[in-house]
Each structure stands twice: as structure tokens, then as C-alpha cells.
Amino acid sequence: MHVNLSLQQDFTSPDLVLDEDYIQQVVLKVVSLFDSPDYEIGIACVDVAHSQQLNFEYRQKDKPTNVLSFASEIPEDIVDELEAYPLGDLVICIPIVLQEAAEQGKTPLQHFTHLLVHGVLHLLGFDHETSEEDAEEMESLEIEILAGLGIENPYKDDEI
Q1: Where are the beta strands (DSSP E) in 31-101?
Q2: Dihedral, CA atoms, 58, 98, 154, 91, nearest 10 degrees?
Q3: pLDDT tens digits for the chain (160 residues)?
Q4: Which of 29, 53, 62, 158 is the most buried (most CB within 10 A)?
Q5: What's phi and psi for 54, nearest 5 deg?
Q6: Spatial distance between the Cα atoms of 135 and 27, rounded to a whole number of angstroms
């Protein structure tokens, strides 16, 4: 199994230096849980204004957000002809990642990794907004994947 990664860094920060090999390793960790072909994924790291614009355009929410996922809409008959399955694209707002990491007492890379895992799961069809059961399934997958990467449960502070 292989992941073809396209990384676009429109916004960078010395507080979060991203390595394509690391990102590819994280994506592979997620997709390896499933009976997977080779995949293709695009990841764009953007600023607050770009995140807010896309969030408004596609979700009608006039505020920036940490990660947006855009699943591939290529018809299955065309997908069957491709060498790698096009998962889609993720847009990650680096300033929001940095802000949330500081607020949550995490390193920027830990939080970026969590959002990357979260976004890839969305591209694979997982959802946390339709039901509590779906949210619990997605969270437990995130916890399992992140543990395999040496990252603590990001939801542990949410537990009562």
C-alpha cells in the first residue's frame, strides 16, 4: 500500500515544521486499518482568511476552522481506471492548529497529527455530526490510531 501525497504549504510557521514523510506515515497509519488500495490525498496548509473563506463557501459558517475535508467526487467507474484511489483534499489552518494546541496544552505537531487523522477519517466516510454512535466510533478510531503514533488520547479531558 502506498499514499501519493500532495502537500501545499501556503502558510508556514517555525512552531510547526511539517515533514512530508511524517505526514505520509500518518496517512498510511489511518488507511492501513482498512482493506486499502493505494491512495492519493492533497493537503493544503492555509492561513485564517483562507480557512474562513472556504468554511463560508462550503459550510456557510463565517469563521475559520481547524480542518476542512473535501472527499473526492470522482465517479467509481473512473476510479476503477486509476492507479491510486483519490481520497480527496484536506485544508488545515495552521494558525488555528497553533492556537488550539496552546489552549489544550499539546505540542503543535501532536494537534496537527490529530487533525490530520480526523480529516483522513472524514475522507474515508466517517462522520461525527450525524449521531452520537458515529461520533463515538470515529473518536475511538482516532484514539487507537494516535496511540499507535505515540500520541495520548486527545479526548481524555472530555471524559467525566
Answers
A1: 39-46, 67-71, 85-93
A2: 30
A3: 888 999 999 999 999 999 999 999 999 999 988 876 789 999 999 999 999 999 999 999 999 999 999 999 888 889 888 888 899 999 999 999 999 999 999 999 999 999 999 999 999 988 877 778 878 999 999 999 999 999 999 888 655 4
A4: 29
A5: -70, -40
A6: 20
- List the alpha helices (DSSP H) in 32-89: 48-59, 76-79
CB 67 within 8 A of CB 119: yes
CA distance 50 to 92: 10
All cell numbers assigned to 35? 482493506
Helix (H, G, I), strand (E, B) or coil at 98: helix
The DSSP call for residue 128 is: S
Let me know: does 145 contact 124? Beta carbons within 8 Å.
Answer: no
Place of cell 481524555: 156
Residue reference for cell 503514533: 149
The CB-side HSE value for 36 (13 A sphere, CA atoms) comes to 17
Instruction: Give the pLDDT confidence score for residue 129 in this predicted structure.
Output: 77
43 phi and psi, to 5 degrees?
A: -130, 125
